[in-house]
C-alpha cells in the first residue's frame, strides 16, 4: 500500500495552504496505520478535513476569478464524492475499499498539490491574495475573464473536465 509523508516537494510557499496540506498528509497516515476498529473513524476525520480543505481552496478560487466549474474545483468534487462512497461501502462492512482508497490518495495527492495547487498558489501570490483575510491586494492583476482551467500549464482552458488520474482507480474500487 502506498503511503505518503510530508516533504519539501509538497511545500508551496503559501503557509495556510501548506499547513492544510500537512494536516491532510498526517490524517492520511492515520488512516493508513489504523486497525480495523479505528479505520472508519480515521477515514471520517480525513473526509471532514478534506471537505474543509477543498472548500477553502474553492473559496479562494472563487474570490480570484476562477469559474465555478474549473477543472481544479471539479477534481475536488470528484475526489470528495469518491471518499464519501468509500465511507458508505465501509459502513456496509467493506473496510478494504478504504485501504485501497487511502493508497490511491497517497499517489494522487502529490500530483494534485504539485500541479493544480502549485498553480493556484502562484496565482494567489500574483494577485496579492491574503488567504487568511480573503483580501486581494493587487486587484489589477486579476484576470479579465474567468479562469476555466486549473490556472496552470497542467490543464487547458478549453474545458472543465477533471484531469484523469488515480482518482479514477479509487472510484472504480469504491463501486466494485
Automatic annotation (TrEMBL):
> What's the superkingdom here?
Bacteria
Spell out the molecular function terms from Gene Ontology: metal ion binding
Domain Hemerythrin-like, first and last residues per copy: 16-119
Q: Which Pfam families match?
A: Hemerythrin
Q: Which SUPFAM superfamilies does this UniProt record tie to the protein?
A: Hemerythrin-like
Statement: the UniProt record of this protein carries the keyword RNA-binding: no
Keyword terms of this UniProt record: Iron, Metal-binding
Report the family membership: Belongs to the hemerythrin family.
State what protein this is by name. Answer: Hemerythrin
Origin organism is: Acidovorax kalamii
